[in-house]
Automatic annotation (TrEMBL):
GO cellular component: plasma membrane
Family in the record: Belongs to the 4-toluene sulfonate uptake permease (TSUP) (TC 2.A.102) family.
Topology class, membrane: Multi-pass membrane protein
InterPro entries (alphabetical): TM_pro_TauE-like, TSUP
The protein's name in its UniProt record: Probable membrane transporter protein
One of the Pfam families matching this protein, by short name: TauE
Alphabetized PANTHER family for the sequence: MEMBRANE TRANSPORTER PROTEIN YFCA-RELATED, TRANSMEMBRANE PROTEIN YFCA
Heme keyword on record: no
């Protein structure tokens, strides 16, 4: 592999780790980078290699958030378990369900999320301390199952979906939602790798190289998120969702 390709993959992985740690959506950067550098790879191998690179950055971001942001362990357990199960099912369905059938629905959902977040100026700006109840746990389980399946079978924008869902239905701010999303993202990546590794759809040398860069980027992303808070994350979130909308619209039309 040419040194230029290696350097570009490392740079993109670093950028993906930083963005993903703050607002999710690292796949928006990392997956096109892998496809552009290695266009001969099968889609499952692209996704598997991306997951290997991402899981280390996600793990480091989740650990950093947990040291700084107080989160209920029962809620984290529900999110982790449901995300893992549904992501594994999604990964196993990669070769069975064409991702093209999802794209129109995903595009519509992203547009709705962008409009809602932009018009609701206080959305995600305030964290409401609540005691856990059955409704919150059920909503967390439903959201984690749906988003986990999506991440296993396709992936781009998963962190953004997690963040929006947690703010909307768990009444947390962007900072706490980002922390919760890292737990969900880590387990979805772990579940997907549980399928991709045994089936031979992971390039370990490339994925490992990108993983180191992803960790460095994730540490920077968490530091920025903690320093500048929910207002900063909200702006990044809107920018990322807008980019996702443009990319998916271009692919469709």
């Amino acid at each position: 592999m040419d040194i230029e390709i290696i350097i570009s993959l490392i740079v993109f992985a670093f950028m993906a780790g930083a963005i993903d740690a703050a607002v999710g959506g690292g796949g928006l950067i990392q997956i096109p980078a892998i496809i552009g550098s290695l266009p001969h790879l099968a889609p499952a191998t692209v996704f598997g290699t991306n997951k290997l690179a991402s899981i280390f950055g996600t793990a480091s971001a989740a650990f950093s958030y947990l040291k700084q942001v107080k989160l209920p362990w029962l809620l984290l357990g529900i999110i982790a378990l449901c995300s893992f199960v549904s992501s594994f099912i999604g990964a196993a369905s990669v070769t069975l369900i064409p991702v093209e059938v999802f794209k129109p629905f995903i595009l519509i959902m992203l547009i709705v999320i962008a409009i809602y977040t932009f018009t609701k100026k206080q959305f995600g700006r305030v964290h409401v301390e609540q005691k856990l109840n059955r409704k919150m746990l059920v909503m967390a389980a439903i959201g984690s199952l749906a988003i986990g399946f999506y991440d296993g079978i396709f992936g781009p924008g998963t962190g953004s979906f997690f963040i929006f869902f947690f703010i909307r239905y768990l009444s947390v701010d962007f900072l706490h939602a980002s922390a919760l999303s890292k737990i969900g993202n880590f387990t979805t990546n772990l579940a997907a790798l549980s399928f991709f590794v045994p089936t031979g759809h992971v390039l370990f040398q490339i994925g490992g190289m990108m993983a180191l860069a992803n960790i460095c980027g994730a540490l920077l992303g968490v530091r920025l998120a903690l320093k500048y808070g929910s207002g900063f994350i909200r702006i990044l979130f809107l920018i990322l969702v807008s980019l996702l909308i443009c990319r998916m619209a271009y692919q469709l039309f």
